[in-house]
Design goal:
InterPro entries: Cellulose_synth (IPR005150), Nucleotide-diphossugar_trans (IPR029044). By secondary structure, this protein is of the alpha/beta class. 50% of the residues lie in helices and 9% in strands. Helix 4 links the parallel strand 4 and strand 5. The radius of gyration is 27 Å and the shape is globular. It starts with a strand and ends with a helix.
Length: 711
């Protein structure tokens, strides 16, 4: 299928002088410049190292114990050995993040004392969208307006919006936004507004200035128009207020073929039009929350004492609208806030796909091995001299935006974003670092960007399944961190990427622990040491040590106990659903069997769904196949826990021998309360579909019958 690809270009003011990347270094204004940033090691680093050594010894002892049990050729022992071996491997790779974590601070107030404002580099902002029904045009508009309002020289800031869906609704929304921006941007600067996303600003009940009500009325009018257009499915011609808008809108279908990599098209088109040496990449729902964010990035990019190999400055992904206890663990606190400082201390954070300031030069080969594009006008060193609206520039932009342009070129392999994975953001950052580039993780107290998190369980696990497939693409690619990464990066840094790339294999031990000990318990078979056995205390130490360390990391970074509990619960849920299905779909795609591929995560939920989410109620509702293993595990663990209690209390079963299995079943039961509630107690539309519950009961019964033969 082909779709229309529209390229929307929003430029605040043309820069008269676009300088190349080699000119982004600052001009020193004082002999002794004030600090632009600081870096300190975290205090708990040595404690992490000592604990890692002790815990590693315990893991080796456990694996030795498993090896001895394997001499009896027990299928159960082999399965448990596999589960614990995978857990041990993932724990070991995760320790790389804890070996050299650092904390950075920036001082943007010192920037003007080091660099003249006229010497600030130009910045091109890339925003991508694809589906106006899953990514509402008003959300994209708010993101664009928030970055257009940066505290930055207007002639040096350009905002590019690519609509991969070619939607007339998105085009109309930006035609309306262009008019509103003429009032919104001066209002923000005049009144020194900090919250420069219009939707977030007016939602926060702001202080009232003389023109506030007028601006709010204009925004609400624009919002009603755009949302009405999306709802009705057509643009009313009455909304087109002048001849120029009518001509633009009338030609909206004169676009380009759909492209699977809009970021790389933005890179080429921006090179033809403005070629700014600094690039900011943003998700369409990730609005700016701090107008000084570019200045924070420049504290690194313009510091002459920084490594000349610096490729990008990554800000953490943070979210608004998450309910009080983050029931889905959608904040991804470890992945976006806790682990990146550990990578930063080793050489640089991953690229998270959004909130990242790149040097354009980094997309064209390594620091000492420049790869020239086939058209020298796309080179990061090319100085633009023609007006943006000139026919030559527009003709070139149209040509290089075509899908077929990059055939037989280095785009996607050695130049620009790297193809080959559904997580091309992480893959691109990894490939750049393998070429010799470094990066910075900048985590200010005030969130630089705030985005939308999935508000339904189905949306979250589908998103995670897509990531799982992409990560496995990276793990088993030509440039796998397991092989190529070890040669190109320092070993600990490569282990961090290995941890991310093999993220989904946690499905193996989680699935084994969710079913095997429970089936053994139903058959009165013990799979763990007795309470009186010294090996029992090794299991206790390993369990409490792993959970305790994660708990400390989570709470010390500002997380609450309830959020941590929900976070660890979601590891079980993701392991049984998105990780497992992601592994299967990756294997199928490797065999050439078509799978679902890329699917945009919907940012739209109904009023009832939103209400339940705010109340902390899990949203099931749809009969997703990924709910089956979750429901099966909850049913299996409930019955095995009950059976274990009955055996101990009424059948004189050995409590010492069955304690660990009863504990595991009980632990899963406690974590599964939202699922039991959705299956039995709820009557709203977000309950577990009856079909899923019935199929799960049948499959659990089949598993039990099979286990009778195995035990």
């Amino acid at each position: 299928h082909t779709y229309i690809y529209i390229y929307i270009y929003v430029h605040m003011s043309c820069s008269k002088d676009m300088e190349g990347p080699t000119e982004t270094k600052n001009t020193t204004m004082e002999m002794e410049s004030p600090p632009l940033h600081t870096r300190v090691a975290l205090h708990r680093t040595w404690a992490n190292r000592v604990f890692a050594l002790v815990y590693a010894c315990a893991i080796l002892a456990l694996l030795h114990h498993h090896f001895l049990n394997l001499l009896y050729s027990s299928t159960t022992s082999l399965s448990m050995f596999l589960a614990d071996a995978v857990f041990a491997f993932m724990w070991a790779t995760h320790q790389a993040f804890r070996m050299c974590p650092i904390h950075r601070r920036v001082f943007p107030e010192n920037l003007k004392r080091v660099v003249k404002e006229s010497d600030y580099p130009a910045v091109d902002v890339f925003i991508c969208t694809a589906d106006p029904y899953k990514e509402p045009p008003m959300s994209v508009v708010n993101t664009a307006l928030s970055v257009m309002a940066y505290d930055y020289p207007t002639e040096k800031l350009s905002v590019y919006v690519s609509d991969d869906g070619g939607s007339q609704f998105t085009l109309f929304a930006f035609m309306e936004a262009a008019r509103f921006a003429g009032h919104w941007l001066p209002y923000c600067r005049k009144n020194m507004i900090v919250e420069r996303c219009p939707e977030a600003y007016f939602r926060s009940d702001p202080a009232c200035f003389p023109e506030t009500n007028k601006i709010k009325l204009m925004y609400e009018s624009m919002k009603i128009k755009v949302e009405n257009v999306v709802e009705t499915g057509s643009v009313c011609r009455d909304y087109i207020t002048n001849e120029e808008q009518l001509q633009v809108f009338g030609k909206w279908t004169d676009g380009f073929t759909r492209h699977d990599h809009p970021s790389i098209i933005q890179l080429r088109v921006s090179a033809a039009m403005t070629n700014a040496p600094v690039i900011l990449t943003l998700d369409c729902d990730m609005y700016s929350n701090d107008p000084r964010t570019p200045l924070r990035a420049l504290c690194y990019l313009l510091d002459p004492s920084m490594d000349s190999k610096l490729a990008y400055v990554q800000f953490p992904q943070r979210f608004h609208g998450i309910n009080k206890n983050d029931i889905y663990g959608a904040e991804f606190k470890f992945e976006s806030q806790i682990d990146p400082p550990g990578m930063d201390g080793l050489g640089g954070s991953i690229h998270m796909g959004t909130g990242c300031f790149f040097l354009r030069r980094a997309f064209f080969g390594g620091p000492s091995s420049f790869v020239s594009p086939e058209n020298l006008e796309l080179s990061p060193y090319h100085v633009k001299s023609k007006p943006i609206q000139s026919e030559e520039v527009l003709a070139l932009a149209h040509q290089i935006a075509g899908c077929n342009y990059e055939a037989q070129t280095n785009w996607g392999s050695e130049v620009g974003y790297r193809y080959g994975s559904l997580v091309e953001d992480l893959y691109t950052g990894y490939r750049l670092q393998c070429q010799g580039w470094n990066s910075i993780f900048c985590h200010p107290n005030r969130a630089a960007f705030l985005g939308d998190a999935p508000m339904t369980l189905d949306g979250l696990i589908n998103q995670t399944k897509r990531w799982s497939m992409g990560l496995l693409n990276v793990a088993f690619s030509e440039y796998s961190p397991i092989t190529s990464g070890i040669r190109s990066l320092n070993p600990l840094w490569a282990l961090c990427y290995t941890h991310y790339a093999l993220w989904p294999i946690r499905a193996i031990p989680i699935t084994i622990y969710a079913f095997l000990p429970q089936l053994a318990l139903l058959n009165s078979f013990s799979t763990f040491p007795k309470v009186s056995d010294p090996w029992f205390f090794l299991y206790v130490f390993l369990f409490l040590g792993a959970y305790g360390q994660d708990f400390l990391d989570f709470t010390l970074s500002g997380g609450t106990i309830q959020r941590w509990w929900n976070y660890q619960r979601m590891w079980i849920v993701r392991g049984l659903s998105s990780f497992s299905f992601g592994m299967v779909e990756y294997l199928l795609s490797s065999l050439g069997i078509s799978t679902s591929g890329f699917n945009v995560t919907s940012k739209v939920v109904g009023d009832e769904q939103s209400k339940r989410y705010k109340q902390g109620i899990f949203e099931f509702g749809v009969a997703s196949p990924m709910f089956l293993p979750i429901t099966m595990a909850t049913i299996m663990n409930l019955f095995s826990f009950a059976q274990g209690i009955i055996q101990v209390v009424f059948m004189q079963g050995s409590f010492e021998a069955l304690f660990v299995q009863i504990f595991i079943s009980g632990f899963v039961v406690v974590n599964s309360w939202p699922v039991y509630e959705a299956m039995v107690l709820r009557t709203d539309k977000g309950k577990m579909p009856l079909k899923i519950t019935l199929i799960s009961v049948i499959l659990v019964w089949v598993l039990y019958l099979v286990s009778l033969l195995a035990f």
